[in-house]
Amino acid sequence: MQKIFYAFISFFFVLYAESQTAKQKNVLIHTIDSILQSQVKQQFIPGAVVLIKKDGKVVYQQAYGYARMYSNDHQLLAKPEKMQLNTMFDLASLTKVIGTTTAIMYLADRHLLSVNDPVSKYVADFNTPDKKNITIRNLLTHTSGIDEWYPLFYRAHNRQQVFSLIAQLPLRYPISAQRKYSDLGFTILGEIIQVVSGMPFEQFEQEKIFHPLNMYHTTYNPLKTGKFKNFAATSFGNPYEKRMVYDNTLGFTYKEINPQSWNGWRHYVLNGEVNDGNAWYANGGVSGAAGIFSTADDVQKLIDILMNDGKVNGKDFISANTLKTFFTKDAFQNGLGWMMDTNDSFMKHAPEGSFGHTGFTGTSIVVVPQYHTSIILLINRQHMGFLPNGKYYDVTPIRQQIFEAVLNFCR
What we know:
By secondary structure, the chain is α+β, with helices and mostly antiparallel strands. The chain has helices at residues 2-41, 95-109, 136-140, 159-168, 183-197, 201-210, 222-225, 239-246, 277-283, 296-307, 320-326, 396-410; strands at residues 47-54, 57-70, 76-82, 89-90, 219-220, 292-294, 311-312, 315-316, 355-358, 363-368, 373-379. The strands form three sheets. A six-stranded antiparallel sheet has the order 3-2-1-11-10-9, sandwiched between helices. Strands 4-6-5 form a three-stranded antiparallel sheet. A two-stranded antiparallel sheet has the order 7-8. A hairpin with a 4-residue loop joins strand 9 (355-358) and strand 10 (363-368). Helix 2 (95-109) packs parallel to helix 5. The radius of gyration is 22 Å and the shape is globular. It starts with a helix and ends with a helix.
């Protein structure tokens, strides 16, 4: 009789727990819907895709608003293209972690390079007095001292010219002294991957990373493949980078650059073409810093590997030791490639061990291993055009609100 009583009590508590979880899930979904539907309705953003996964199960996945609203002359389309779950986004700087960092992980795991190797071992132009002590680790942690950004397309017209130009530029900061987020540093990582693998960077990514992980909707230059048509449109040309060149108040003025000496700016809505100017104009659409297009589902496949101790179908894809190396915080509270500083606005107050990254087009990832939870939020914010202040709409508050809602659900 006593066993029956305890079985009944246990059954009751299971039902109660499931009921509470269902209620919490409904609250989470309602909160996310309210946030993103409001943003779309008020025309702050065109659209978004969100994917939240916990304990190996999708908690919520939804598409909102529109993938494209404007024509090439920036007039509102009579029939805007709806956002779909399989819409491909220009990942922007998520390229740095989804593509480049993962590739370096792969090579390091197979002892084909070490993150402590000097860059000059692979890129001869770095064998100079000021750069010979820069390591791959420095590039991954943005502590190389290399400038944050430079309009490479004014002086370089192919990848080899790009790599040589970056090597020629004077260091902006002392090596290892501080973290200064650098697109140029990750561009060089792309060259290292080519040198070590012996194949073009994008081919290595496809053959060794994306295809083995069944990421069949992840690629550089998607229009060239002829396979994809469903994209989240971004900006009308490259107006912000043009501002960076012409407007010296943004801090990117270079005495050797005459803004009017180059005029190859695009004048149409970017739809399947990478937004990043250095990637598009100077690198043929392929860079270690930007250029990958993908879907939320494909991004999740890589995140699943990182959350599952680097295993794919029970087999090691990346070893636990390599993952530990990349997800151990440095002096600036970040990992190798991945951001881990819980003071960062998009993952503020995250539990220790959390990691993530953001992209300029409006993309972001946050992973919270403590709760076995990931949040992928893809927004095509640039498609709305500039605000009166000459900037794009800031989606940081959206990221914060959704992240806080997911944390509340997990707790």
